[in-house]
Write a sequence for this structure.
């Protein structure tokens, strides 16, 4: 892919703010509602940037505002023409926010990178190669064109003296393929414009259905059909009295039939195409068992029907997770001899091993309900078993030059016309909303706290394994086992855990010799964690609880059962303001004492670390730089936080002869920030990131002047007993939120959910 020069486009909108802000916390943004239009040698791109803005107001409270920016640009792609397809990927490269000196405006700059690819569907004769990539491609079975005439008459009201124009459009095309034929049905939407006897212009609409069939030798049910209809001719005759308009419409229907197939294609110097390469495929069956309670007693079950309402897939390494909802329609006869209906939805999940599958690839899935078994256990309890079959194929989009062959089969493939990368700068100044007023007669006190939520789940699994010993054993001396290579993936509220059990088996053979065998057993487990949240930091641990074994088949087979204990711990945190005191006329608050992490203060800022590096030889230009942070340490002093660490950096440069060389170095750094109220012993949260590195060559390329730009987030908290308002009686409206807090003297030694008041408004 060729990367072109970067172009910029700036949009600006200045809005005066009513309430000043003192600091911007962060801005999250996503790109949505992308639209593209292909014109000659260009692709027009439009979209929206949806932003979540978090800022600190003059009340020292973190506020949130949703905001949307629109953008539009065009990307030049040589060879693009109307009718071609544009594929686009937009990434947010950088967001820069700056608060105006008076705190009344936030100026935002969002840099977008747009990657645009233009493809055109073409029919090509392609060469095959058994050693080439296995490609999923549409082979052209046949194509044909037919014409059909649609005649009808329409009564005009009022009577016409002249028909001036008839507009005809083809809508709602449907097709049905049978052996060697394609049946086409559709509707003609017609607009008749005429002059009435009153000498005024009139309009009358009608819809006329039509049908036709086209012979396509080789066509079979299940193949793909593309229809390209065209209105070829329109004519009409007005009756002598002007009340009836006789119409004739000639349609041309071009039909193409293709079949998806897997074939090894030859790579070469031919056209560049974008096609899916088959990584692997498999079929899996799974059974969903459920017990359903009927609304009323039943004499018998007439039928149970099931279909897939929603099926989603997610690719892990060498595995595909399938999840969905099975919707069932249950028909039964009640004890009053009347037939009733009830619906049921059942969640299901399964996974399929596909070697070579990786996140980012695509899945083609064909689900099927294979069998339904049901039994009426009691008059109101229905036991059901549904067997489902899933055929899935994992593909990776491949862009490759193929070889043309005049004797090869004909395929319909997307040919890459061109692609390009462009950057745009979207700049906007947006308002900060006013802080909601508190009624003057009400006195409110609040504290900013950090909530920490922990979720722990534990499950036992059995791993059964039989191993063929190299020689017969008379007894097992010992088996040592360890768990290693533990990995996990979170899908919705489920944790999929995988790993290996490495076992060292020592046994005694018939000659009373102690032999040794090493065995690796892979395992997998699924943990259901309904309370799992997306932002939780997850840790997973697997321990061996027990190993039982026995020798079978005259000591040639060692049968083992391993009991594993899988534990998962999820932890998340958030910051919110809770009301601690509330006073006013006729206001009676309910306050409880809790142990909470009170936020003493926090800060977000940038630090520039500059360093000059003497080079071992003159350099003409820098190539790239890699860096990471290590040994990050924070120390709290009264009202001050000191942060130190080391930047480990590798700078690659090139000489005038374009010979590359790399220089490595470690740069220590230290900086301070004021956090009013901080004291030694408080809890410190640090997050330091490298956001940019600037390199400049001086002294004829013998010295590299470097500036490493760090972004630091510092938060200080302290665990204290505070009072929080949980209920209010009086002339105010309150907003509550559920927070996990350790309630004092409740007899429970861990945090529990508590509904606390977070906002107060006049009634």
């Amino acid at each position: 892919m060729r990367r072109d020069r970067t172009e910029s486009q700036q949009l600006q909108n200045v809005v005066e703010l009513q309430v000043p802000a003192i600091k911007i916390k962060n801005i999250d943004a996503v790109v949505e509602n992308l639209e593209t239009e292909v014109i000659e040698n260009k692709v027009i791109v439009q979209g929206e940037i949806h932003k979540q803005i978090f800022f600190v107001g003059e009340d020292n409270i973190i506020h949130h505002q949703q905001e949307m920016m629109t953008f539009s640009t065009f990307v030049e792609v040589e060879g693009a023409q109307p009718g071609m397809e544009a594929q686009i990927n937009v990434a947010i490269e950088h967001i820069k926010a700056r608060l105006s000196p008076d705190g009344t405006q936030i100026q935002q700059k969002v840099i977008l990178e747009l990657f645009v690819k233009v493809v055109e569907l073409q029919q090509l004769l392609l060469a095959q190669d058994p050693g080439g990539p296995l490609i999923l491609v549409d082979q052209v079975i046949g194509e044909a064109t037919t014409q059909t005439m649609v005649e009808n008459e329409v009564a005009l009201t009022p009577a016409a003296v002249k028909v001036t124009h008839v507009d005809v459009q083809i809508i709602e095309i449907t097709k049905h393929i049978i052996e060697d034929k394609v049946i086409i049905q559709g509707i003609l939407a017609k607009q008749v414009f005429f002059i009435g006897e009153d000498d005024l212009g009139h309009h009358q609409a009608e819809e006329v259905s039509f049908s036709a069939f086209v012979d396509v030798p080789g066509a079979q049910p299940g193949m793909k059909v593309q229809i390209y209809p065209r209105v070829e001719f329109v004519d009409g005759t007005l009756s002598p009295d002007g009340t009836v308009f006789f119409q004739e419409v000639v349609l041309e229907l071009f039909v193409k039939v293709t079949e998806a197939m897997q074939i090894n294609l030859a790579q070469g110097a031919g056209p560049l195409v974008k096609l899916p390469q088959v990584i692997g495929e498999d079929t899996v069956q799974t059974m969903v068992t459920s017990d359903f309670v009927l609304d009323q007693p039943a004499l018998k079950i007439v039928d149970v029907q099931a279909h897939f309402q929603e099926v989603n897939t997610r690719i892990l390494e060498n595995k595909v997770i399938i999840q969905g909802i099975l919707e069932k329609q249950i028909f039964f006869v009640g004890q009053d001899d009347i037939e009733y209906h009830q619906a049921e939805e059942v969640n299901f999940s399964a996974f399929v091993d596909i070697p070579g599958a990786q996140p980012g690839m695509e899945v083609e899935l064909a689900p099927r309900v294979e069998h339904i078994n049901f039994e009426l256990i009691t008059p109101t309890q229905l036991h059901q078993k549904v067997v489902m079959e899933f055929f899935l194929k994992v593909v990776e989009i491949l862009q490759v030059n193929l070889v043309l062959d005049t004797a090869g089969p004909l395929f319909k493939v997307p040919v890459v016309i061109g692609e390009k990368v462009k950057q745009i700068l979207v700049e906007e100044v947006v308002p900060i909303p006013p802080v909601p007023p508190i009624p003057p007669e009400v006195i409110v006190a609040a504290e900013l706290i950090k909530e920490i939520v922990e979720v722990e789940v534990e499950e036992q699994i059995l791993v059964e394994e039989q191993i063929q010993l190299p020689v017969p054993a008379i007894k097992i001396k010992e088996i040592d086992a360890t768990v290693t290579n533990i990995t996990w993936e979170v899908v919705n509220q489920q944790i999929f855990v995988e790993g290996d059990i490495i076992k060292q088996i020592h046994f005694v053979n018939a000659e009373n010799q102690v032999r040794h065998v090493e065995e690796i057993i892979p395992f997998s487990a699924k943990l259901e964690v309904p309370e799992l949240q997306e932002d939780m930091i997850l840790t997973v641990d697997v321990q061996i609880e027990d190993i039982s074994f026995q020798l079978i088949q005259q000591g040639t087979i060692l049968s083992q059962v391993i009991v594993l204990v899988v534990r998962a711990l999820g932890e998340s945190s958030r910051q919110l303001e809770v009301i601690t005191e509330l006073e006013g006329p006729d206001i009676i608050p309910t306050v409880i004492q809790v142990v909470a992490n009170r936020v003493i203060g926090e800060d977000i800022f940038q630090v520039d670390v500059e360093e000059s590096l003497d080079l071992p030889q003159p350099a003409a230009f820098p190539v790239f730089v890699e860096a990471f942070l290590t040994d990050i340490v924070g120390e709290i002093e009264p009202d001050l936080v000191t942060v130190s660490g080391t930047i480990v950096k590798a700078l690659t440069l090139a000489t005038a002869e374009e010979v590359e060389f790399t220089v490595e170095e470690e740069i220590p750094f230290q900086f301070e920030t004021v956090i009013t109220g901080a004291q030694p012993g408080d809890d410190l949260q640090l997050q330091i990131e490298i956001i940019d590195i600037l390199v400049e060559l001086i002294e004829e390329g013998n010295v590299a002047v470097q500036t490493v730009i760090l972004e630091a987030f510092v938060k200080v908290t302290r665990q204290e007993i505070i009072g929080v308002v949980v209920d209010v009686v009086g002339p105010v409206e309150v907003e509550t939120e559920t927070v996990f807090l350790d309630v004092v003297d409740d007899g429970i030694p861990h945090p529990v959910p508590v509904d606390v008041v977070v906002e107060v408004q006049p009634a």
